[in-house]
Write a structure and sequence with these properties.
alpha+beta; five-stranded antiparallel sheet; four-stranded mixed sheet; rod-shaped
């Protein structure tokens, strides 16, 4: 008896976006696929965890047609947000898809990198220095008040 199964594939591509994207365009990220077929978990041929970059999409091949796969990014490189397209209806940071027979299923993983916020407000040195001056003035005012009251009593 020979069991023959139709096989399909899944391709995952990477994009980076945001004001600080250019600093991360050559970074390497990591994704993981978890698949089930007929309700039971299956091993992902070639390994579930793979390195992903903007220059090198990942192809999961030899997956049975009808398998349901979930893709998550396990190392996002410090991104401010991770978005999958198409995304899971429950969580935009993961994808859930079914492997088809005709064309490879595809997912795009976008990592948004926002630029660091500019420094605003006072430095702690100025803040503590100002606080010290304020405390000193309060103490000096209290001493003057005590001295003045003593002079009035005498």
């Amino acid at each position: 008896v020979t069991n023959t199964f139709a096989l399909g594939a899944l391709v995952v591509s990477k994009t980076v976006s945001g004001g600080n994207a250019s600093a991360h365009s050559a970074d390497e990220f990591e994704i993981a696929a978890a698949c089930t077929w007929n309700g039971a978990p299956i091993a992902v041929p070639g390994g579930a965890v793979r390195a992903l970059s903007t220059a090198a999409p990942v192809r999961y091949a030899e997956l049975p047609v009808g398998a349901e796969c979930t893709i998550v990014e396990t190392k996002h490189g410090g991104a401010n947000a991770v978005t999958m397209t198409p995304a899971s209806p429950d969580d935009s940071s993961m994808a859930k898809l079914t492997i088809g027979a005709d064309a490879a299923a595809s997912v795009v993983v976008d990592n948004r990198f926002d630029p660091p916020l500019p420094v605003t407000g006072m430095s702690t040195t100025v803040l503590f220095g100002s606080g010290g001056v304020a405390v000193g003035l309060l103490i000096a005012g209290a001493v003057l008040l005590v001295v003045r009251r003593r002079r009035q009593v005498v």
